[in-house]
Specification:
The complex is a heterodimer.
Chain A lengths: L5 H7 L2 E3 L6 E4 L2 E4 L5 H9 L10 E4 L16 H17 L2 E3 L9 H8 L7 E4 L13 E4 L2 H10 L1 E4 L3 E8 L8 H12 L7 E6 L1 H4 L3 H9 L8 E3 L4 H7 L9 H10 L12 E6 L6 E3 L7 E3 L13 H14 L14 E4 L7 H11 L9 E4 L4 H9 L2 H8 L2 E2 L20 E4 L14 E4 L2 H10 L5 H5 L1
Parallel strand pairs in A: 3-4, 3-6, 4-5, 6-7, 9-10, 9-12, 10-11, 15-16, 15-18, 16-17, 18-19
Antiparallel strand pairs in A: 1-2, 2-8, 13-14
Helix pairs in contact in A: 2-5, 6-8, 12-14, 12-15
Chain B lengths: L5 E4 L1 E3 L7 H4 L19 H4 L16 E3 L12 H9 L3 E4 L4 H10 L2 E4 L2 H13 L5 E4 L4 E4 L4 E4 L4 H9 L3 H6 L2 H10 L17
Classes of the chains: A alpha/beta, B alpha/beta.
Chain lengths: ~475, ~200
């Protein structure tokens, strides 16, 4: 019998019941909740006189629409305010731990899970947010769900699921030093397309993935959904164990070693079979920028805006033309000559301490280009506090960046941090959809160091151009 | 959820590919705590454009959306389904769908029909030729028909989704019938409780 993939191990250890001809009922170990996709689910529970089965396996935080202005500033949008209040009230009513605005553990749900150590290997984790795939970096099966499913998990701590197909994406070799985790995942999404991962759970493998820090692996798993895959995974290794040691949610002392021994089994067996295997050569990777309106539309920072003429398929050619029109770009324009109005460093993709350190090392001693608005939004209060203890806030402020309170912010424009129509933004977030960062806004996805260099130069740029 | 057997209605050809859920319902609309009223936000970035297909009078009142490849990719927001249904759509026919969107649809009673690109293009043409044409989506027989053009195709739905649509079943009710099995699983499960991790104020102990 062939060995098992990591996904199969995670799946099999969480089967509650697998009735013939019906979806498998899967147990959920951790349910993360935020203010946007939960109010209607709590309403559904009340309507049907149902309770929350396991409030002790449920954790809530305010993130999507919290303002990132200083905490003393009142929330100006009454609808956001109402939604944040509803989260607090619902959690109180049902006995769920919640981190409201200003709380020491508050932050983007996919940042706080790992940093608090409540995301652990071998778990099943769900959240009403498609970037839940982030948590797969720790060897847990984590995926986004809709509000009906949020209600379902609240009521039953289970979900009816169909087993996914398995895909291995191997990134082999050592990437050039200017290539970050973000560039690796942009290359993968560019290769697979926005639908290439649909129906699959992706396991990221190979020495380039193994060499990434935990935070880099989170960046990669985070964008699995941009290739259409609901979940991304990285097998547990000593990097995983070392990351978790000492975090509040994990066992301490000898108990930690017992847990770690169990966690080490969450790897794919050597002879495991994947339904699809893809390999990328890490040595050929470069820093990437998206030029269009979906995350698969990537081009090298050294490259030029592509032309619809180069596309054979007519449907695809129209898509390219439409994206160019929306982005107001001319084919053949070098990326490095395109000016930006806004730079956003933040989001569940790239707002962790290593991201902020990397960006700060680029901007240190330089000034943001005239006319560019540059924001740094730490992923959580813990990240913000850590960054301030290292003096990173001062580096950003001295360079002319805004240093803001934690939240999802300009990644999806639900709080006041939005682009105005026509503004062009270099963003470390995950989606460059039309209007994502504000109506008429034009988003280019980049790594934290490219975002930092771009802020200084006022156009797309690499870190070497700043230090030169 | 109401049972769905046969949907008879007029179609509207969207003719755009890669319409993600941010396009279906922009994030502005996600701040509401209610479950209704999202129809006004459907495709709202495009609704100001008088030439947008939903603004064309011949398609007013259509209940079947003819969409392009990869409809509903992106964000998991179920509001996309609420918006389509609140606007009056009962079915979406497309060459392919975003996984999470399709799953969300099945839980609300919005029928998602996957046909080949060629078939969807044929349907677009039939509807453009005569917008008053009736399209019949039959969940029982798993067929799509345009009776006055003698056009019919079969489609595939997983059996569970089909039964749920036909019976109007609530997912939670179905799962709670397995409560004994859930309790048995929990007796062996190792999911770490958060009670020992955080105090009542949510501070790490």
């Amino acid at each position: 019998m062939p060995g098992k993939t990591l996904y199969e191990k995670l799946w099999e250890s969480h089967v509650v019941v697998a009735p013939e001809g019906e979806p498998t009922l899967l147990y959920i170990d951790l349910h993360l909740v935020h203010e946007v996709t939960s109010p209607q689910a709590f309403d559904g529970l009340r309507l049907n006189h149902r309770g929350v089965r396991r409030p002790d396996l449920t954790l809530a935080t305010a993130d999507h629409n919290v303002p990132t202005e200083p905490l003393s500033t009142p929330i100006s949008d009454p609808i956001s305010k109402r939604q944040l209040e509803a989260l607090d009230e619902n959690c109180k009513e049902f006995g769920i731990t919640v981190f409201p605005r200003g709380h020491e553990n508050q932050g983007i749900v996919h940042v706080i899970g790992p940093e608090l150590g409540v995301t652990q290997p071998g778990m099943t984790i769900v959240c009403g947010d498609s970037h839940t795939s982030t948590h797969g970096a720790l060897g847990s099966l984590a995926f986004g769900i809709g509000t009906s499913e949020v209600e379902h998990v609240l009521a039953t701590q289970t979900l009816p699921q169909q087993k996914a197909k398995t895909m291995s994406v191997s990134v082999e070799g050592t990437p050039p030093t200017d290539v970050s985790a973000k560039d690796i995942v942009l290359a993968i999404v560019g290769r697979l397309g926005t639908g290439g991962g649909a129906g699959y759970v992706i396991e990221y493998r190979g020495d380039a993935i193994r060499a990434l820090s935990m935070e880099g692996r989170m960046t990669v798993c985070n964008m699995s959904i941009e290739a259409g895959a609901r979940a991304g995974l990285v097998a547990v290794d000593e990097t995983t164990i070392d990351y978790l040691r000492g975090r509040p949610g994990v066992p301490q002392g000898d108990e930690f070693d017992d847990a770690a021994a169990r966690w080490r089994s969450f790897v794919s067996d050597d002879d495991a079979h994947f339904d699809l295997e893809i390999t990328l050569d890490a040595t050929e990777l470069v820093p990437f920028v998206t030029w269009g309106t979906n995350p698969a539309q990537v081009v090298a920072l050294d490259g030029v805006v592509p032309s619809p003429e180069d596309v054979h398929d007519s449907d695809e050619r129209n898509t390219v033309q439409r994206a160019l029109d929306y982005m107001d770009l001319t084919p053949g324009t070098p990326l490095r000559s395109i000016p930006v109005d806004v730079v956003f460093i933040g989001s569940c993709t790239n707002s962790r301490i290593e991201d902020l350190r990397a960006a700060a090392s680029v901007v240190k001693g330089s000034r943001v280009s005239d006319g560019v608005r540059a924001l740094v939004v730490p992923g959580s209060r813990r990240v913000k506090t850590q960054a301030e203890s290292e003096g990173l806030d001062q580096v950003f402020l001295d360079a002319g960046f805004e240093w803001r309170e934690p939240g999802c912010s300009m990644c999806l424009g639900m709080n006041p941090d939005i682009l105005t129509p026509g503004q062009r933004c270099a963003s470390t977030s995950n989606r460059n959809f039309e209007g994502r960062q504000g109506r008429g806004g034009r988003t280019h996805l980049v790594s934290p160091v490219v975002a930092a260099a771009t802020a200084i130069k006022g156009r797309f740029a690499s870190p070497e151009e700043v230090s030169a | 959820m109401k049972p769905v057997h046969v949907i008879e209605g007029r179609g509207v050809p969207l003719e755009r590919s890669d319409v993600d859920t941010d396009q279906i319902i922009p994030s502005d609309w996600l701040k509401r705590v209610e479950r209704t009223g999202f129809g006004r936000g459907l495709f709202s970035e495009w609704r100001d454009d008088t030439t947008f297909v939903l603004n064309q009078p011949q398609y007013a009142g259509a209940s079947i959306l003819l969409a392009g490849p990869r409809f509903g990719t992106g964000s998991s927001r179920e509001h996309a389904v609420w918006a389509l249904m609140d606007y009056g759509f009962e079915a979406v026919i497309a060459p392919s769908f975003g996984d999470i969107f399709r799953n969300n649809s099945s839980k609300q009673g919005l029928v998602t029909v996957q046909l080949s690109l060629k078939d969807v293009e044929d349907l677009n043409q039939l509807v453009k030729d005569d917008p008053s044409r009736l399209i019949v989506v039959d969940v029982e027989r798993l067929s799509v028909e345009v009776p006055d053009a003698d056009w019919h195709r079969a489609f595939v739905l997983d059996p569970m989704t089909r039964e749920r649509l036909l019976g109007g079943w609530d997912d939670i009710g179905i799962s709670l019938r397995r409560e004994d099995a859930i309790t048995r699983y929990e007796a062996t499960s190792v999911a770490p409780s958060l009670v020992g991790v955080f105090d009542r104020e949510g501070r790490a102990r």
